[in-house]
Every structure is written in structure tokens, then in C-alpha cells.
Amino acid sequence: MKIRLFEKIDAEQVAQLFHQTVREINIHDYSSDQVKAWAPDNIYFRNWAEVCSNRFTYVADNDGAIAGFGELEPDGHIDCFYCHKDYQRSGVGSQIYHAIEAKALELGISHLHTEASITAKPFFQRMGFSVVNQQEVTRRGATFVQYKMAKVL
């Protein structure tokens, strides 16, 4: 497994990984309507190549197969962070997170923050994040519980 920066050629796999993870993993914590709003059938509602290229997006590359990815923004915000359904609880997320944290330290970022799903909350807690507050957000007509979380580096 190699952790590396996103390349535009990864966009298709990253989009599919996002869609499959939400639909097959997050469904354990959210309703069918919620996951369909979160990851609509048209997975290209977001320009993956452009967005991922404009952030520090790290991918876990397993001989050409993307096993996970995470995005760091210059202000310390971790946006998307997903591991493929077949790589859950295998250390892939930790490897991606450690690459993100190392980059943040290199950039002089003093704290990281994210909005974690119910599903991702325990992972971020294991990485040393604390819950700032629970909130509800609405996307495409569905309301979701998520957690604002932060970590001082």
C-alpha cells in the first residue's frame, strides 16, 4: 500500500469509492433516503478531478486500486475522508490520516477540524480528535447528524 498525492487519473476511482462507501458502509448509521441524498446516483455531482487537485488529497494506492482517500484544505479542514468498503478497519485510514497530519505540520497548521459522520466519528476520536458539537445539516432534502470535531497539533 502506497500513500501518495491524488492524480487526475484517480478521479473515477475516487468518485466510485465515495459512492460505494456511503451506500454500503454509511447505510449502517443513516437511512436509505439519507445515503441516496449524500451519494446520489449521479456520482459526478462534484467535479472530483478539480476539487481533489485543489487540495492536498492523499490516496491509498494498492497496486493501482484506490483503497481510500482524504482531503486536507490549507486552513486545516479535513473534508472528504473515505476508505473502500473492502479496506475498512485494515489500517488504510490511519495511514492516510498520518500523511495528512504530517502535511499539516509541514505547512505550519496548528489544528485540524472536520465534520464527521456518525460512522467516521469513532475513527477520528482514535486519531485524537474531540467532538466540538453535534449538528444537523441538510443536503438535497435530507437532514443528517454529524459532528464538528477538532484536534490541536
UniProtKB/TrEMBL annotation:
<protein>
    <submittedName>
        <fullName>GNAT family N-acetyltransferase</fullName>
    </submittedName>
</protein>
<dbReference type="InterPro" id="IPR000182">
    <property type="entry name" value="GNAT_dom"/>
</dbReference>
<dbReference type="InterPro" id="IPR016181">
    <property type="entry name" value="Acyl_CoA_acyltransferase"/>
</dbReference>
<dbReference type="InterPro" id="IPR052564">
    <property type="entry name" value="N-acetyltrans/Recomb-assoc"/>
</dbReference>
<dbReference type="GO" id="GO:0016747">
    <property type="term" value="F:acyltransferase activity, transferring groups other than amino-acyl groups"/>
</dbReference>
<dbReference type="Pfam" id="PF13673">
    <property type="entry name" value="Acetyltransf_10"/>
</dbReference>
<feature type="domain" description="N-acetyltransferase">
    <location>
        <begin position="1"/>
        <end position="153"/>
    </location>
</feature>
